[in-house]
Amino acid sequence: MGFSQALSGLNAAKANLNTLGNNIANSQTVGFKSSTTLFADVFANADVGLGTQVSDVRQDFSDGNIESTSRELDLAISGEGFFRMQQNGETVYSRNGQLTMDADGYLVNAQGAQLMGYGLSDPNDPFSDVVAGGQPEVLRVPAAGMPAQSTTQINAVYNLDAGIVASDPDQLETATVDNDGGTQDIQYHYSNSFTTFDSLGNSRNVTVYYRKLEADPVGPPVVPENTWQANVALDGRINDSTTPGDNTTPGTDDNQFTLEFDSSGALIGVDGAAGDNDTGLTFTQAQLGGAPAAINAQFNLAGTSQFSKDSTNDQLTQNGYTAGTLVGIQIEDDGSIVRNFSNEQSQAAGQIALANFRNPEGLKSAGDNAWTETAASGGELVGQPGTGVLGSVTAGAVETSNVDMASELVDMIVAQRAYQANSQTIKVQDEILQSAVNLR
After folding, report:
1. CATH 2.60.98.20 fits 153-318, yes or no
2. Model pTM above 0.85
3. Which residue, of 53, 268, 330, 405, has the greatest Cβ tally within 10 A?
4. Which 3 state secondary structure label does DSSP give 423?
């Protein structure tokens, strides 16, 4: 009789319905991967088999859709790979990147599992470099504020008007600046001001006064064609080493320098040194009003030109800043975790590591949107997002479930019909058996 075959069919259909029901139930679960029930016949040493059985429940690790959430700590993986998490001392893997930051600065999911990656080279220095590579560790975002940094490098690109006639006094302007105990008048054709910072993070206003000099091939001193002189004042004061008192004689500015251009308007060099685009600027403690340390900065003028158009500052950057507090973090496509501070500076706190497997279908589901490594999956391959076969990290988004609802509903109808058909087989077998019992 075929009761055993029909019963195996009922059990198989039931298992399939359970799988389909689980898929549908998790259609809104972030990072969920759908499963498919696989069947195999039960072989018997006869022409007629003994029915069917569930041979495997296989997960589909194809990508879900990337859905924007605009929440910085929602992460999605575009491509292959898993987030590496530590939960209760065990490493688990997940595609669900819905994270929060706990009170200690760890990035955790709803189950408390901590995100892993590459941390700082010195755990005791929150502003040390991130070491990419090696063994991943639990990532922690330090809450420490950023200390102030004195300006040590200034990069500027100017155009100084080639049409200026150095011998024409009507084209000159005059500025009066303070020096040690007196004042000094500076005549100039163009000036530019910008902000620098001292060692305490106090902003300091620097003004550079540019004056085109008349050429003097005899000297002394010899002044080549297309030479400009620059004087530098900090907060309206020059760094003057002359005897204190009223001083109107130019040339006593310790930060004074010259720029020489060729006939085509390109910068030859600074202070008569061909090919040298740098000059050192020093602002003493006295000039800074008793600050703890002087400002010693390199002033790089590479790219500065002398063309017949208005004098302008085309570009200026400097590397000093005031102290700042942590105001938030952002996560880049390569997994870098970047801290943003109130002083508009940023600093990396670590880099997320992704893991991949030779056979992801061999991973064991651990619940809570996580999997664990098995012999069938092979060992993990860990690396930086966007390298090798690993996908990139998208912040402000999540990966939706890859369940295809329409397909699941169709498969459920098919499974239901299979269950009904196997039930009908039992009914027919019962009727045949009943007929045999009623034979006289």
Report:
1. yes
2. no
3. 268
4. helix
